TrEMBL record:
UniProt-listed InterPro entries: Haem_peroxidase, Haem_peroxidase_sf, Peroxidase_pln
Record organism: Helianthus annuus
Entry's Gene Ontology BP terms: response to oxidative stress
PANTHER family: PEROXIDASE, PEROXIDASE 72-RELATED
Enzyme class: oxidoreductase
Database matches in Pfam families: peroxidase (PF00141)
Protein name as catalogued: peroxidase
Transmembrane stretches, start-end: none
Domain Plant heme peroxidase family profile: 36-152
Length: 152
């Protein structure tokens, strides 16, 4: 069983490391990056990857995650997952644009692989009508209101 904790990295690192992880605020990040790639599989590049899928053409914020990952890696290399960085960045982006904050539980693991074919079938496409979008989101759990929030 996977357990996710608010203070997952707390004991492993000194105060400076914790401050870098917990307070890095990538203001430009689009929440779409978190929604499309919560397991960080979207960050894996290369032929046939989700990042290269046409379904992810509108995703922004890769540069912000790269900067955050580099900052965290400089103080605690090889420990903090990109999935956790995405979760913290999405929360911070929400706050910056006037949305709510929430406690982020840490300890996620990154996906070891990325599949463009899955992105093409699982994600909404720009040519879907409203009914198709609502159905596509509902199949994954979000209701119509949440779909609107995630879609921007």
């Amino acid at each position: 069983m996977l357990f996710i904790y608010i203070d997952y990295y707390y004991m492993a690192y000194d105060d400076q490391s914790r401050r870098t992880l917990m307070h890095f605020q990538p203001f430009k990040l689009q929440l779409m990056l978190r929604y499309h790639g919560c397991d960080a599989s979207l960050l894996l590049g290369g032929a046939g990857s989700e990042k290269e899928s046409p379904a992810n053409d509108g995703v922004l914020g890769y540069d912000v995650i790269d900067v955050a990952k580099a900052a965290v890696e400089s103080v605690c290399p090889g420990v903090v997952s990109c999935a956790d960085i995405l979760a913290v960045a999405a929360r911070d982006a929400s706050v910056v644009v006037g949305g709510q904050s929430w406690t982020v539980r840490l300890g996620r693991r990154d996906s070891p692989d990325s599949n463009a074919a899955e992105a093409a079938t699982d994600l909404s496409r720009g040519n879907m009508n409203l009914g198709e979008l609502i159905s596509n989101f509902a199949n994954k759990g979000p209701n119509t209101r949440e779909m609107v929030a995630l879609s921007g």
